[in-house]
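Q: Can I see a sequence and its folded structure?
A: Here is a first one.
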Amino acid sequence: MKYKDLSQGNLWDHLLKLSIPTMGGMFAFTIFNLTDTYFVSKLSTESLAAMGFTFPVVMVIGAVSSGMSLGAGSLLARAVGNQDEHKMHRYVTDGILLSILSVVLFTIIGLLTMDPIFKALGASESSLPLIKEYMTIWYIGIIAVMMPPVSDSAMRAMGDMFRPFMVMLTCAVLNIILDPILIFGWFGFPEMGIRGAALATVLSRVVGMFLTLSFVHFKYGLLDLKYNGIKELTDSWREILKIGIPSTFVRLFPQLLRSMLTYLAAIVGGDIAVAAIAAGTRIESFSTIISMSIGTALVPLVGQNFGAKKYDRVRDIRTMIIKIGVIYSLMIFLLILPTGEWVTRVFTHDPEVMVLAKWYLWIMLFGAMGLNIYNWLSQALNAIGKPLIVASINVLGTIFILMPGAYLGSKVGGFKGMLFGLSFGQLILGAISIYVSSKPLKQSL
């Protein structure tokens, strides 16, 4: 079976070669989401608001999908390092089957609960029909959203970052092409409005789904439906969910923190402060593309070396993560110091918003040093099968460090104090991650 052996060779070279294609995929995914928002905004304010109400639901399902893909990818990377081909087949095939089972559950529950869920989220009677138009198509095509991440994660575990990038790029390009055609009825197609946006998303994802499955099956031969009994399947599912469930919750907690930050900003600075956070987070998201790409690349790198029992290399990766976290974060911070005001002009021309957005970038990008180290060490811990440590740091850190820091900071120093409190909390979280990860990532047994 062909795969890239990451347990040999220079670790820095491996991380670089794994991260660069992933950055392309992350950027393509960002373009994918922005395209939908852009074209729907041309329909009406009501349509854009309706799409906004779908984001929390889409986010939750995306978190579940990401959790399962991380679980399968972590297990597969270790199996690759251990050269256990039977487990390689099982984790990939069973991860895909688990995603299909999840699809059935989410589709049934989603279609039956649209009214109560979106009313609870605050949807008005006028926006609810538009939401249901969009989500009905989205739920029917949810298989194309939940299955590909598992296949993509499998390829990454094999050391292949290029093909997942090609899948996301294909989806993004198709979505850009299909959105105006289906939304506005170009080239003789019926004008579908917001339903067209949902259909464009589903169709482009379906193409991506078949593309990624073909890579997994024909390139790597990882799909295998032969079992030695049902227990083999359920054992595999249990191992995947052991990592996937905690990882899902970890992905949801930042949204809780973000909601609190918006709430506090509204109290201390009103609409101007909320707008400043919105502008700042959009700019900040571009720096996180690199950060997230490195985190994604760490799963196969750490997992393969751990599976191959190359614990000395795992220790070296941990040291490398910490060094990169400090150097990269300082570089971004020093870059934003003289350019903060200039980049905020891209998203706002309001002088008051620009000033607060500039401060947001200065303060939060300094604290990102701790956040990056935490995120990367968390991925390393997930890669060796320690998701509960990650979940504990995330949940307890959010509840007892980040949220109180932001709240107390807002009471003492208003908008800037809130940001300083959160930023300092992130640095503490990074330091805790360095300490907590020391033993599991330095084991030699």
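Q: Show me another, different protein.
A: A second, unrelated one:
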Amino acid sequence: MTKKFFASLSFIIASLTAFSQAGTGVYQFLDLPVSSRLAALGSYNVSLRDNDINFGFVNPALLTSETNNTLGLNMAFYLADIKFGSAIYGKNIDKKNFLAYGIQYVDYGLFKYANETNDQIGDTYFTAKDMALNIMYARVLNKNFTVGATFKPIYSAYETYTSYGVAMDAGISYNDSAHFFSAGLVFKNMGTQLKGYYSDDGGQHIEPLPFNIQLGITKKLAYAPLRFSFTLQNLQQWNLNYQSTNQQSTTSTTTKTTTTSSITTRNIQFLDMAFRHVIIAAEFVPSKNFYISASYNDRRAQELTMNGFKSSAGFSFGGGIKLYKFHVGFGTTQFQAGTASYQFSITTALNDFRL
């Protein structure tokens, strides 16, 4: 069964990799952190096996017998009053087969109609939203390995422009509890846009999804309450270069001063490029009911670098505690230089409320 799984997975990846580019395409909201803990861990962690149901979003193989009848709710305050969040519920089939159902969404708020000269048109407003349904399944192969898959219908609406598509995640988790070690491999967002936002001469304008291959390991120290994670992202694409518009040039004349932004492509050295694929995270876990997390995402730090402006971009922090029958978490990270995003989570096992 394991051989068939990897053979099918390899065929799917080979057919989709050629059509996917990191940082381009549609439905980029799928890469936003789905919980406060994941935000604190650098947005991605496919290896940490800690019975946290929210980790099923990033690797369905991280569902466990302990995520049965567990509910997770997550809410984040993004940029410019934009809000995003997720909700997830786990329901196991039996001791070796686990299910979970989740939803991710982004609400961009209300917008007032205006023409090309920014003159407002009446008092009519429109909205913009993204959402994706997640149907997750995991199966235990043996005492160390679990495989999983997620089916994701996606819907997006910006005013009268709508789009929908479908994606799939496939992952595997390895867990060695005796040595406090775990690892994970995930192929995320394999799929296609079924309907584009608009049509062109060739019909529907179809764009690629944010396909991402992620590999990670997690190791807890045997005699100290410390746990470290090392995650590699975008393994399907070595070159993560981008066009920068942060370089400004000023032209002065006797009558006016004009400031323009020039578009440049940075020359990134080998080690710099390699490190942009890496996320390093650490957790202080003195008990099952409390944790403090910190991480560094070098790609985010480099892409948010601005000349003459100091920022903590790339670093993320958070923590969580169990209060009564609820696990409450908080995380903060930067998606824009100088502006922090705050995320809150609450998780509970509904079985705890049974008399």
